[in-house]
Amino acid sequence: MAGYGSIPTDPDTPAASSEKGSGCSRNACLALAALLGGLGLLWTGMAPTPPVSLLQDPPAEHWPGTLLKIDRAYNDDFPNMMFTTTDEAIENGFVKSDEPCDPMLGQSWLRGGERSAKYSAAVYFTPESEGSPGVLSAIEADFYGHVEESLIGLFFGEEKTSKDGTFRSISVALRNGEEEDLCAPVAPGNDPYVMISPGMANMPVPLREDDPELLSEWQRGSCIPSMGYHWSRFLSPVTEMPYKTSEMVPIVPMYSSTDGTINGIFFWATSKQQQTWPAHCDGKLPGDPCLSGELNMWDASPGLTEANRPQFFMCSNFCGKDCEFTGTEAGMSTTMHFFFKDTFPGPDAGPDAETCGVDNGLPYCPNGDYPKMLDD
């Protein structure tokens, strides 16, 4: 076992800086990061190398050229490098759904062609045309069970039913449906674009960390190796963090510590969404063979605790000694990460590798104001 432990418990002991970053191999990092809220354990040697075809970017004129999700160590059903074209989606068992096409999102594609609690995410594409595949246009997470009532109709859509029960979804558009009809073939050359809940909140996510809107409306949190700096936003402008789940935007963007561009996002559920964590694996940590093939598309962990107690707790994403959330169901949260770059460090890492300038693999708060642990 190597890499992530918990955030430092002594705020007077800053994380060590390094230009080398993590020492794990690229394939191990890609397959094995248990990224619950940016806090997990990095395990090595447990997952096959992603198919070469999935490591190649689609044409550069389409953005994003990469969609990265960490699951392969725990679910052999879907790859680390998610697909950015419909041809790749078909190769990986995703099927165009019979749901109506949404011109603000595109056409939904689902694992096996239907919604389920196990495959609790949808990938949206534009239509294929003249032998050319459709391209990535949106991503969506399905939340089963508890959601914050204050966020329904703003971020969460209408309640729907699958074979596994009722759920609500949050969508994030990656192409601008106001400028192009995403239910029709689209031209190449789209600019980077991230919009939360188009048609409801219509909340744009700034694309750079120096964006004035980010600096004025969002709150900077910790930098986590392989992810970057986390930023959060609340429904009303704040001068002090309220740490109330009913007031927090359920999408958290992450930005590069070197060039400030957006690395990716995660969906945040204020309840336990990893419903398929098997009872016979209670007490096991992510990466244990007991969990192989058992988990759904939410991040691989039993959940993040509301209380600041390692190993997995929500405040690992934040800086500030007084970080203490309230409002989660049964004191638990869950996250689902997507990255628009290959951000994982290692000896054979690419140019977008994210180390946060530390060599210990831990969340990093520049001012040393790490959240106070419950037992401190």
Task: Provide key terms for this protein.
globular; mainly beta; eight-stranded antiparallel sheet; six-stranded antiparallel sheet; 5% helix; 376 residues; 3 helices
Could you explain how this protein is built, in words?
It contains three helices and 16 strands. By secondary structure, the protein is mainly beta. The chain has one domain (26-339). A hairpin with a 3-residue loop joins β11 (219-224) and β12 (228-232). The longest helix has 7 residues, at 26-32. The two termini are 26 Å apart. The model is unreliable at 1-5 and 9-59 (pLDDT under 50).
Present the secondary structure layout:
Layout: H1 26-32, E1 67-68, E2 81-82, H2 86-91, E3 94-96, E4 107-111, E5 121-125, E6 136-144, E7 160-162, E8 165-173, E9 195-196, E10 203-204, H3 212-217, E11 219-224, E12 228-232, E13 251-255, E14 262-269, E15 304-305, E16 332-339
Antiparallel strand pairs: 1-2, 3-4, 4-5, 5-6, 6-8, 7-8, 8-9, 9-10, 11-12, 12-13, 13-14, 14-16, 15-16
Concise summary:
By secondary structure, the chain is mainly beta. It has one domain. It has helices spanning 26-32, 86-91, 212-217, and strands at 67-68, 81-82, 94-96, 107-111, 121-125, 136-144, 160-162, 165-173, 195-196, 203-204, 219-224, 228-232, 251-255, 262-269, 304-305, 332-339.
Give the overall shape, derived from the CA principal axes: globular
Number of helices: 3
Characterize the main sheet.
Answer: 8 strands, antiparallel
- Low-pLDDT stretches: 1-5, 9-59
Name the structural class: mainly beta
Number of E-type strands: 16
Taking Cα atoms only, what radius of gyration do you get, to the nearest Å? 19 Å
The percent range for helix content is: under 10%
